[in-house]
Amino acid sequence: MTPETEKQLRKAWLKQRFGSWEYHEELLRLHEDYLTSLKRHWSDPALQKRHPGDYRGMISPVFFNLDRVSKPGTIPRASWKAGKETGWTTTISYNFNRGMDYAGVNEYQELSDAERQRLNELVAQMLHIQENIRITVEDAWDGDDILDIDLTGPIDWPPNWKDELPTEVIATAQGSVPKPRPNVPAGHPCPEAGWWFTPAQAGSRRWFRHDEIMPALGGDYGQTFWQWSPDQSAPRL
Description:
Elements: H1 3-18, H2 21-41, H3 45-50, H4 52-66, H5 113-137, H6 149-152, H7 167-174, E1 184-185, E2 194-197, E3 206-208, E4 225-228
Antiparallel strand pairs: 1-4, 2-3, 2-4
């Protein structure tokens, strides 16, 4: 594999990762940790008494807005589609500082240096993730920017990352012609990671992991069969 081919495959894997349900859930888990830590800190009655104005500000708008963010595990994987109107963005802008964070000096009153550093690191991680999601959804990565960890933040590359890419993506990068794929009936494991759809339901295109059980959708169409989508790109606006 040439260096250029590997670069194209890495870019494809990152877009696949940034547009995934799992990546969105990682953002929600970080946010829940952040919010829980702030609430625990401000649950001290003595702290509330020493800083009554700041505490009122924490109740609203800070906690009021942060509580609007979806909790981890509450968005079904089956219905997930990356986009500006999905996940926590149904109520809160993709712009992190307009919804997911109101961090400032008031929030951090009397925190220890270690805890303040930990929360700042959580905010930095969330900023990277939400930007990676936004730019991927908007198909706005410029050149090789997606490979720049100064922009994306550190990337945890699995040892078998290439195996997570659809065969069609690999074939395209290598300049070869992919083989056709058979339709898969509901209840069977997904034979290959990628985007699939079913004529049984409009707008059914979704990402399946390898060996994930493909669901039946019911309705009047009859048995559900999943077909390999000719479009293997991340969703666009």
